[in-house]
Amino acid sequence: MGEKRKPLVLIVDDEKSICETLSGLLSDEGWESLSAYSGKDGIELFQKNHIDLVFLDVWMKNLDGIQALQEMRHSKDDVPIVVMSGHGTIETAVKATKLGAHDFLEKPLSIEKILPILEHSKKIRNLEPRTFLSFSEKWYELIGNSEELSSIHRQIKSIARRNSWVLISGENGTGKEVVARNIHLQSARAEKNFVAVNCAAIPEELIESELFGFTKGAFTHATYTKIGKFELANKGTLFLDEIADMSLKTQAKILRILQEQCLERVGDNNSIPIDVRVIAATNKNLPDEIKKGNFREDLFYRLNVIPLRMPPLRERSEDTEVLCDYFLAKLAGEFQEEKKLVEPSALHLLKQYQWPGNVRELKNTLERLCIMVTGPLIREAHIREVLTDNGNNSVTPSEQNFNETLKEARNNFERSFIINKLEENEWNISKTAEVIGIERSHLHRKMRLFDIEAQRRRF
């Protein structure tokens, strides 16, 4: 049986940098691509090749994107065509949709905008799922075997079947957006847009324009009409991250939209009906924020229909090992190198560490280690160096360790000490025994007691 072909994307844009950037992103996702720098060349490539998806710029010299769209639709009417524009107007979007455009994207493009389109196109074209990486598997996996994470999986499955609003709480780096995307992907809205908004990252003076959109002439420099995030998420899911960082004024407007299921763009009095499932997230204690006068109580009760709490990594430390294995495998593929191993004492330290930045900090730490460590094995000294460089001057065990008996604590320290010394002396038993000041036979007994030989064979 012949090898399955990769899905093929046609990029039509007279800006070469756009084509190169988009082509690189598509390649990372397992798609092949062709680029055309004019509408005429794009039509020719479209007609001569088995194209699975088209990204088509609107504003091009000579033959513009709308004309190219019409020609392509005349040739083949079953290929998804995504129209792109750096000046997204309602009129252009509506016209493109009426002419058969599958979607409308505003520039600048981002991976968050592109990935859902690739997944949706895969479903529309019935592309062989093995020909490229699974969208949900690559980006939105919840990794771990702990009971805490199993509970989260059960809650997601239950929540996704309903259309209720969800409020996810949890510390930074615990994976709140990952949970939100999983809820969306398992819901009846999965075919529609998932739009994520980091409320803390948008300046206060711009957040209303970002969320609700604006009309041409609404304010200085508003030279076109912009579709807001709520409209982009219509029929789909809107994820409002760090919602507690919004002003009371913006909170009031969001409350009104949630109650009335319609909105008004900035500078426009016309009401636009919307059907959006809102999933909100915060790293703050909202009842405390309400008492401080920083968050509206009525908005809290509106959003908190289904509360879901993401546990910090220190509460599910048993997942650390499987997370390390997962991230190291991913990084090895990304860096095109052999997967690195973690020595037992180093893994023990990773499990005991508090991880104030949670899963995100663990991932970043492992990425740094993969770059820094030249050999195949990540050692305890490497871990300590990286965590100290991150500003964690006291790399101490978590509070869980203080539940140990004195004997258990002493054994854990002694085991780690012996492994380190054996590594330093390249597992030469006689030399190690001499260095640490004990008889060779005594060291052998210690190694058997702590199962160190078995650990050595793992590497």
Tell me what you see in this structure:
The protein has 459 residues and is an alpha/beta fold. It has helices at 16-28, 39-48, 65-75, 90-98, 111-125, 135-139, 147-160, 176-185, 204-212, 229-232, 248-260, 286-291, 297-303, 320-335, 344-352, 358-372, 380-389, 406-424, 429-436, 440-449, 452-457; strands spanning 8-12, 32-36, 53-57, 81-85, 103-106, 166-169, 194-198, 213-214, 226-227, 237-241, 262-263, 272-273, 277-282, 306-309, 341-342, 377-378. It contains 21 helices and 16 strands. The strands form five sheets. Strands 2-1-3-4-5 form a five-stranded parallel beta sheet, sandwiched between helices. A five-stranded parallel beta sheet has the order 7-10-13-6-14. A two-stranded antiparallel ribbon has the order 8-9. Strand 1, helix 1 (16-28) and strand 2 form a beta-alpha-beta unit. Helix 7 crosses helix 8 (176-185) and helix 14 (320-335) packs across helix 16. The longest helix has 19 residues, at 406-424. The chain is globular. The relative contact order is 0.07.
